[in-house]
Design goal:
By secondary structure, the chain is of the alpha+beta class. It is 32% helix and 20% strand. It has two domains: 30 residues; 111 residues, no CATH class. The strands form two sheets. Strands 3-4-5-6 form a four-stranded antiparallel beta sheet. Strands 1-2 form a two-stranded antiparallel sheet.
């Protein structure tokens, strides 16, 4: 009976240490937390609570999905239009948050993780009458080659 009690205590202690280790390596205090699948949901929840506003007022970075504050811009590079079309090719690099490695960068089309050297390829349609231009993301450098 004494041997059974010792085994039972070792099993209980093993479960406690396993749970503690899981919390330390995969919990909210872990440095891996923003990159884990369950960390992204909390980031979007916190993100929406911090920067509430009307849907048209908020601008979202297409690279890291961060809601940006008023006046913040996405770093882009637009090229001159062709003679036959009114749209322009544009490279989207990201916002200040993802360019400073605060949030992971992903392609919204193929979901591949992007490095700081990668950019998104998009088309920009210029509108008249002082209306904001429309940008359509085509993909990243990797998925556009396919």
């Amino acid at each position: 009976m004494d041997n059974f009690l010792q085994i039972f205590i070792f099993i209980i202690l093993g479960v406690i240490f396993l749970g503690l280790g899981f919390f330390l390596f995969f919990g909210t205090m872990s440095p891996l937390y923003p990159h884990l699948p369950w960390g992204k949901k909390d980031r979007k929840k916190i993100n929406n609570e911090l920067y509430k506003g009307k849907p048209g007022e908020r601008q979202i970075c297409p690279v890291c999905s961060m809601v940006m504050k008023k006046g913040e811009l996405v770093r882009t590079e637009a090229f001159p239009p062709d003679k036959n079309t009114s749209d322009r090719i544009m490279h989207v690099y990201g916002c200040n948050y993802c360019l400073k490695k605060e949030f992971p960068r992903h392609c919204p089309v193929c979901k591949v993780r992007l490095t700081l050297d990668d950019f998104l390829i998009s088309r920009m349609f210029e509108r008249k009458n002082n209306i904001k231009n429309h940008v359509h993301i085509l993909g990243c450098m990797k998925c556009r080659k396919k």
